[in-house]
Amino acid sequence: MRFVDGDGLYLQVAAGDTKSWLFRYMLRGKSREMGLGAAGEPPDGVPLAKARVLAAQAKATLRAGNDPITARQIEAAARIKAAAEAKDRSFKAAAMALVETKQPGWRNAKHGQQWLATLEAYAYPEIGEMPVAEIDTAAVLRVLRPIWERVPETASRTRQRVEAVLDGAALRGWRTGDNPARWKGHLAGALPPPRKVKPVEHHPALPWERIGEFMAALAERDGMAPLALRFAILTAARSGEVRGARWSEVDVRDKVWIVPGARMKSGVVHRVPLSAAAMAVLARVRELAKTDADFVFPATRKNTALSDMALSEVIRRMNGRGEPGATPHWSDAEGRAIVPHGFRASFRMWAGETRPEGREAAEMALAHSVKDRVEAAYMRSDLLAKRRTLMDAWARHCVGGVATPDCGGLASSRATPQHLEKA
Fold this sequence. Notes:
The protein folds into three domains: 2-86, Double Stranded RNA Binding Domain; 91-197, Tyrosine recombinase, N-terminal domain (DNA polymerase, domain 1, Orthogonal Bundle); 208-415, Intergrase catalytic core (hpI Integrase, Chain A), CATH 1.10.443. Helix content is 46%, strand content 9%. It is built from 16 helices and seven strands. The protein has helices at 48-63, 68-88, 91-102, 109-127, 137-148, 152-171, 194-197, 211-218, 224-235, 239-243, 276-288, 310-319, 342-354, 359-365, 373-378, 384-399; strands at residues 2-6, 9-14, 18-27, 30-38, 250-251, 256-259, 270-273. The strands form two sheets. Strands 1-2-3-4 form a four-stranded antiparallel β-sheet, covered by helices on one side. It has a three-stranded antiparallel β-sheet with strand order 5-6-7. α3 crosses α6. The longest helix is centred in the first third of the chain and has 21 residues, at 68-88. It is elongated, with a radius of gyration of 34 Å.
């Protein structure tokens, strides 16, 4: 028995008082019927209001020249296919897809390797093979909780990268819903802030009062790595910026090293005023170079940059083996062996305690970004002239006017533009 509701919608009552909805229509002169579900209340049944909506949708499909039954079959097949594909789209596959997309914008391939290494070490063992569409808050917490208090900085970085992978998967249509790795308003309620879990450990830095003593000891060592370390200290630059320096970046006549934004942490071009002592290092490098290498501090026997451990190894050798448990000769105030990056802190402490150029000049010398938006909006100059005065004073503090066996003193004639013209 059937009861007409209108616009092709019927209520069909079968044996046993079983009720269902039908949509009846004509297609190419033939009568067809499409079931719309059992009549009744959700979740098992379809109420009258919903049945009318479904009938109206079917009628719209019919007006567009398509068979509603065929259209529904196509949609069902698409959903089944999408579900099958979603199972093959693992978190690992989503991560690889994201890295491939982001790779062109990264400064170097090593950044991509580090990005994936974090996920391989901490995320993949737990959710690597898991369909990205099925990853929820519980899964994310299984990744983060074991490392959140042990290595909070790494854990925070892992969370950010998991969040990025899940966002990328959502953009590709591989998952829907909120991102379970989101911090604000979500994981912040389940995990303590990383900075409160464990104090940030700063790089061991040599007290600035001992810089002259260290530079004198460093001058007694031969090779590219000691020269690169010396140059890094004199310019207060990061190790990676120095190791990747190319002769094409050095303006010899104006005594400026122009580091491209692609090699800077901030992504912004950085001009470094070169003191006479820094120019003397470049002159010495040119004397030692056996080939016209592109890199200022090339690795031995090949035109490649020094390794990221080269400068650290210089300091390690300067500290020697020592007595077990003894404080290294070159150490910070806490007795920890110093590292190359720590000399930037030495420079900053020296500038803050002894120099009149001000905080802005010191921060710009270190290529630090101005975090305050208002201050950044008014900062239109890189204060090169003021920073040149600052770096010249730093060089005097580091090496004085005494010539060294490696690269001469501040008055060395080897720092002249004519000597470096081929750079």
